[in-house]
């Protein structure tokens, strides 16, 4: 299984970016897909997650109301729309997903996310 992120880059404060993450693998489908981020010198933190069944979404307090996660199930791709960006959103952003037979995954429980993308840098100035 591979997760490939795209869409990172530089933006000015109050600007917007959209990240994409495409999951590939024979017959792979996960119950949830999530976005995490890690800023220099800080621990990785959960940002947003979306559950395939029902479409429930979860956000960290720091991004709620500004970021929106969505899922194109047919393409096995998740998107993270980031609006009203702040300098403190600067970080490496990672897409993650559990194995296809893992169903009970709390939104930001990193230990249950088996697959990770390579990360995409977001810089806000």
Describe this protein's structure.
With 125 residues, the chain is mainly β. It is 0% helix and 47% strand. The strands form two sheets. Strands 2, 4, 5, 6, 9, 10 and 11 form a seven-stranded mixed beta sheet that branches. Strand 5 (45-51) and strand 6 (57-59) form a beta hairpin. The termini are far apart.
- What portion of residues belong to β-strands? over 45%
Instruction: Summarize the amount of helix as a percent range.
Output: under 10%
The N- and C-terminal alpha carbons lie at a distance of 34 Å
The total of beta strands comes to 11
Layout: helices, strands, pairs:
Layout: E1 2-6, E2 9-11, E3 17-24, E4 32-38, E5 45-51, E6 57-59, E7 67-72, E8 77-82, E9 91-97, E10 115-116, E11 120-124
Parallel strand pairs: 2-11
Antiparallel strand pairs: 1-3, 3-8, 4-5, 4-9, 5-6, 7-8, 9-10, 9-11
Which features does this protein show?
mainly beta; 0% helix; single chain; four-stranded antiparallel beta sheet
Give a quick rundown of the structure.
The protein is an all-beta fold. It has no helices and 11 strands. Strand 4 and strand 5 (45-51) form a beta hairpin.
């Amino acid at each position: 299984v591979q997760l490939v992120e795209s869409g990172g880059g530089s933006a000015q404060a109050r600007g917007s970016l959209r990240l994409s993450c495409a999951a590939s693998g024979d017959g792979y489908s996960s119950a949830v897909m999530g976005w995490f981020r890690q800023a220099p010198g800080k621990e990785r933190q959960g940002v947003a997650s979306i559950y395939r069944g029902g479409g429930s979404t979860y956000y960290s307090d720091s991004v709620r109301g500004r970021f929106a996660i969505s899922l194109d199930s047919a393409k096995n791709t998740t998107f993270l729309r980031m609006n009203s960006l702040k300098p403190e959103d600067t970080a490496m952003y990672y897409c993650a997903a559990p194995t296809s037979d893992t169903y009970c995954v709390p939104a930001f429980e990193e230990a249950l996310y088996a697959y990770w993308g390579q990360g995409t840098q977001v810089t806000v100035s």
